[in-house]
């Protein structure tokens, strides 16, 4: 079988510059407070690792896991694959996603997290694909807004592959 064609959409250097700016903005907005970053596994692991190193505040890291995609399609059902290790009650929580696409995952997580009674809950997402929304949700800190293309790399997968690409790429059909 021929290898799939992969095109760069956003190069690594541009990603790093944008994440540095996001980290500075978060640092300024939460000045004098400590925050809990909750990374949504698996897709957010690289974004979270880069972002946290640009946040100059006391931080605690937690992870929560969800799954709903097979290939390029959502099943429409969000499954919890891993819960938080520690409570987030009365904490300022920043949920860290790789992408908001249909919005089903974020909508699910906002309900789950709100039930845990954080002091505040905001959303940082590396990518936003607003044209695909099925439910009205939005992030507070967005790295890049992209068109309706299935993207891979920088943590994002197609059938669990390509998460290790340094650039954000498109798998050309
Ligand atoms: O807005 P949505 O249409 O719900 O899509 C966004 C979600 O889908 C992907 O997760 P996936 O279920 O593929 O799990 P993964 O993070 O392990 O790849 C992605 O990482 C987001 O969490
Ligand atoms: O464009 C995407 N790429 C990878 N995973 C995803 N999950 C939702 N949208 C995407
Ligand atoms: Mg995925």
TrEMBL record:
The family database entries (Pfam families) matched by this protein are listed as: Pribosyltran
Q: Which residues form the Phosphoribosyltransferase domain?
A: 13-158
Q: Does this entry carry the keyword Magnesium? A: yes
Q: Enzyme class, one word?
A: transferase
Q: An example of a Gene Ontology BP annotation on this entry?
A: GMP salvage
Q: Which GO terms describe its molecular function?
A: guanine phosphoribosyltransferase activity; hypoxanthine phosphoribosyltransferase activity; magnesium ion binding; nucleotide binding
Query: May I have one GO cellular component term?
Result: cytosol
Q: Where in the cell is it found?
A: Cytoplasm
User: Is the keyword Metal-binding in the record?
Assistant: yes
The family this protein is said to belong to: Belongs to the purine/pyrimidine phosphoribosyltransferase family.
Principal subcellular localization: cytoplasm
Pathway listed for it is: Purine metabolism; IMP biosynthesis via salvage pathway; IMP from hypoxanthine: step 1/1
Check the record and name the CDD domains matching this protein: PRTases_typeI
Q: What is the lineage of its organism?
A: Bacteria, Pseudomonadati, Acidobacteriota, Terriglobia, Bryobacterales
Q: What is its EC number?
A: 2.4.2.8
| PANTHER family (UniProt xref) | HYPOXANTHINE PHOSPHORIBOSYLTRANSFERASE, HYPOXANTHINE-GUANINE PHOSPHORIBOSYLTRANSFERASE
Which organism is the protein's source? Paludibaculum fermentans
What cofactor(s) does the depicted protein rely on?
Mg(2+)
- The protein's name: Hypoxanthine phosphoribosyltransferase
Which top-rank group of organisms is this from?
Bacteria
Q: Gene3D superfamilies in the record, alphabetically?
A: 3.40.50.2020
Question: Which keywords appear in this protein's UniProt record, sorted alphabetically?
Answer: Cytoplasm, Glycosyltransferase, Magnesium, Metal-binding, Nucleotide-binding, Purine salvage, Transferase
């Amino acid at each position: 079988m021929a290898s799939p064609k992969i095109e760069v959409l956003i190069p690594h250097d541009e990603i790093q510059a944008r994440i540095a700016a996001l980290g500075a903005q978060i640092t300024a907005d939460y000045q004098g407070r400590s925050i809990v970053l909750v990374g949504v596994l698996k897709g957010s692991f690289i974004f979270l690792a880069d972002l946290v190193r640009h946040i100059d505040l006391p931080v605690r890291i937690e992870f929560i896991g969800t799954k709903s995609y097979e290939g390029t399609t959502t099943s429409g059902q969000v499954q919890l694959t891993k819960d938080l290790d520690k409570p987030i009650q009365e904490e300022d929580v920043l949920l860290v996603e790789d992408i908001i696409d249909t919005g089903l995952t974020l909508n699910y997580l906002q309900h789950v997290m709100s039930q845990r009674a954080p002091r505040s809950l905001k959303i940082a997402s590396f990518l936003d694909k607003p044209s695909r929304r099925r439910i009205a949700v939005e992030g507070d800190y967005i790295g890049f807004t992209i068109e309706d293309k299935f993207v891979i790399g920088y943590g994002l997968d197609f059938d669990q592959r390509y998460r290790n690409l340094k650039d954000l790429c498109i798998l050309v059909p």
